[in-house]
Each structure stands twice: as structure tokens, then as C-alpha cells.
What we know:
- By secondary structure, this protein is mainly α.
- It folds into 3 domains: 2-139 and 189-198, Rossmann fold, CATH 3.40.50; 228-318, Alpha Horseshoe (Serine Threonine Protein Phosphatase 5, Tetratricopeptide repeat); 340-514, DNA Cyclobutane Dipyrimidine Photolyase, subunit A, domain 3 (Orthogonal Bundle).
- The protein is built from 23 helices and 5 strands.
- A 5-stranded parallel beta sheet has the order 3-2-1-4-5, sandwiched between helices.
- The protein is globular, with a radius of gyration of 25 Å.
- The relative contact order is 0.11.
- The structure holds a DNA duplex.
Amino acid sequence: MPVAVHWFRKALRLHDNPALAKAVAACSAPNSSLLPVYTLDPHFVKNSHIGTNRWLFFLESLQDVDRSLSESGSKLLVLRGEPMTLFSTLFDTLIANGETVSLYFEADTSPYARNRDAAMLELCASKNIAVHTFNSHTLFNPSDVIKVNGGITPIVYQSFLKVITEKMPAIQPATPTLTQVPPLSDEMKALLTYTETFGFDAFQVPSMEDIGKAVPGENLVSTHKGGEREALKRLEEYMKQKDLVCKFQKPETNPAAFQPASTTILSPYLKMGSLSARTFYHELMKVYRASKIGYTKPPVSLLGQLYWREFYYTAGYGTPNFDKMLGNPICKQIPWRTDEQSNVDLEKWATGQTGFPWIDAIMIQLKQEGWIHHLARHSVACFLTRGDLYISWERGAKVFEKLLIDADWSLNTGNWLWLSASAFFHQYFRVYGPVSFPKKYAPESVKYVRKYIPALKNFPEKYLFEPWKCPIADQKKAGCIIGKDYPKPMCDHDAVSKVNIGKMKVAYDEGKVASPPKAPKGKKRPLDED
DNA sequence: GTAATGGTTGCTAAC
DNA sequence: GGTTAGCAACCATTA
């Protein structure tokens, strides 16, 4: 009897999920079964690069999928272990029971996933299992974009925009939402109850404790809730604000705004696939089309934000060693600090102990809530790298990867490359000031710093972003002594940023000398054949 | 080959 | 308060 196995990885949703829809459609024959599977890979579970909030958000997303499946009498099978081993066992069990197995999943372009999925295709081929994959995580398939661009990966946004608007086919309508999926029979449940084999109930979405993760204190648990329901609710709520949607300009939004934030906070849902980028796109188009006041355009518009995601996905796909400096052909080679003190400085930055309230408030919000505004990311990334500490963007990216609930390999890497002036952006002499920048966003930035750094709650506004300049009498009055209740600044920004600009210039000049001769015209940055 | 142009989001002082 | 030049001057693309 036919069994269509749907492998959930991203795309933790029932709306616009082509792979799941096809798997469901394949179950129309009598006695056929849909088996929804998720594999908790030790590559992700055991590594420390996923923080508590990211785990919580993920498990909530998984629970929401299981809840939706359960409403139709189905159930998510959550297997824990190395995917190839698990699927091998699963397939053997099904085949031994006389089933004809087929596998459905959404394609994933990140390096680890590409290797994993290639191995999976081999495994399936060896067992005569038909595999069906679908591109639905992004609006455009990165390899298609590169192909229509003559094998060249666009590394300038405007070039990318030209390619997708002029050379790519129109974005297809979303796949209809699955309101009903085939129920899972008791026989199938009994067959796949691995409790004895693995020591856990695989038909139960695990808790934090189950996967060996501690739940932290209340103040460190993100207020952002995961799941498809929450994603669609947020999308709907945001799209109701038609003026805001049509007038959206990213650089004009306020990084210090909270309750509500000045942007959509849909990124964590897009990352998990709790929200389909295509659904977002079509809902946005509806608002644009109905608008009488016109609407903003990429790169600053809301559509422009969706396209940035596409841009970085494509760059990440087409660039070797994208997440590293060494061996990355588009990355400026910069001798970032690696001395002992840089470890101490990195830690101060990561834990919000720099002595610059704006920087520290951002890093504290990041740790507590798992999300910070894009321009806040700019501020702290510039501070860590070319602005102040001269520490590698790779080390900063790892901290973000752990703490951000929307941590997405392509986007996180791309933005760090940008901010450190290693790729995409090269005006390294434009440095964000840890004091001057937040002043532009008063009074929200004042409230923001007071919220995330309670020690500065009563500190005079005049000195809030540079508290070391505050007269000691006023420090006493505010109940916050700098150097005791809140750290002294870890560096002199004005002096050190000037020195760093000089170092960047040297690194850029040396890069020019060291760079190999340019490839013939039209053959630049060709994509390696798969 | 060279010059001009534009690049989502800097800061400061001067008008 | 809003706009502009200077800062010292980047890159990728296009004319």
C-alpha cells in the first residue's frame, strides 16, 4: 500500500506548502497513508549555536504544525537522531510491512542541508523510493536566478532586482491551504511507535527538557511566539495597516521603537517557514493594488525587504565559503584582531557590558527577546567590527546565530558581510556612532535604554548615551555610579574609529595588490557546477 | 581604457 | 528644522 512520507524541515506550515500538498494528493488512492515526519538532527541539537529562545520558538513552531495535523486525525512523527539513520530504519520498517514508499520535501539551499539532502537522494535511490522536492522557501530559486544571469551571482542589489524583474518568470500563486490531511491509521501508529527502540514517544513533540535544554528565568524568555497560526495572524494584522504598508521605508523606521516595533517582525516566521514568502508577497500585492496613495519601491519598501531576503539567499547559494572570510571570493580580507584581549572584548560586547548604553541595551534586548531591529543590528555589528573593536564579523555572526530567533544562515551572513564592509558595502568610512546614532531616535531611544538597562532608569537624559560624562553629583543623585553600577566605556569611540578607518584602508589596498587577475569578461563569478 | 554614477539606513558643522 | 558640504575617497557598474 502506498505511503507518502512528508519530511518537514523548514516550511512548518499547512498554507502554501507544495511538497505537503503533493504528498496529500498522492494519498487519494484507498488504503494509502500520509506520514508527516520531522527529524531532530543532533547536528542542530548538540551544537551550542542555537540559544534558548531559538529552541523555544522552534518547538512552538513544531507544536503548531502537530496541532494542525492532529485536527485532521494525523500526527507528526518527531524522530531524534541522524536523519539518514532514522530514515533508513523508517523505510525498512515500512517496506517490510509491504508498503510502497515515496518521499516529499521542500528543497533547502544552505550548505549543510544540501549535503544532507544529496545523501538522502542516494539513500532513496538505493531503496527504490521516489523522491519529490519543491522550491518554496524563497520566491525565486537561487540556482534559477544565477542561471538566467548567465551563471553569474549578482552581488549588487540593483543588478539582482533587474534579473528577477526582467528575466525571471512571474511569481506563481500560493498553493491552497490544506484544511484537511489524511488521518494516520492506528495500524501505522502502532507500526511506528519507536518508544522501545529509541526510548521516547516519537508521536509527541518534545519539550525543552526532552531535548536536554534548560528553560531560563522568565525575563529571558522571548515574548515572540512561534507557529503558523501566530505568523498568519501577524501578517493579517500588519496588512490591515494599509497606509503603513504602502509608505513603508526601512531606513525611516525607528530601531528603538518597541510596543509596537517599527517593523513587521515577520522574519522569524519566514525563517522557520511558518510563513510562506509567497503568501506574504501576494498579500502585499493586494494591498499595493488597492492603494490610492501609491506605494514605496524596493529597496526600501516592504517588497524590497522580501527581495533582500532573496538577494542574500542567492548570494549565499552562489558564493563559495560564503560564511567565512578565508576562501570567500567576494569577502575583503581584513586582519581582524585575534589577540587574547579580543576574547574579553567580544564577551563584553556579547553580554552588553561595553559601557555604551545604546550598544548594551541592544545586546540585552537580543539576549532577552531574540529579536532586534535591523538598524540596531547595524549599530552593534559596526561597533564589533570596523567601527570600534575590530573583531571579525564571523565571531559576531556566531553570537547572532545563537541569540536571534530569526537567525537565517544566508541573511545573517550577508548582513555581517555588509556591515563589516567585507562585501556588498564598501564605504567603510561611514561609521555608526554609539552615541550620535541613538540621539536621532529620541525619545524612543531614551525609553529603550531605560527599559533594557534598569541601572540607568533614573539617569539624566542629557548623559544617557554617554554616561561617563555625567558629573559625579548627578550620578549619585540618579543612583548609578559609572564604573560601579554601570561600566565605563570600553574604548574611546572617536579616537578608535578613526584608527580603524585607517586600518580598513590599508586592508583594502593590500587586497587590491593581492587579488588575482580578473577573469575574462562574462566569466566572472561563475557558479561551480553541482 | 577612463570617467562618471549610484550605492536601502554616518557624522558634523554650517547655512 | 531641514538641507548641504566636507570628511577623505570605497566598490561595481555603466557610458
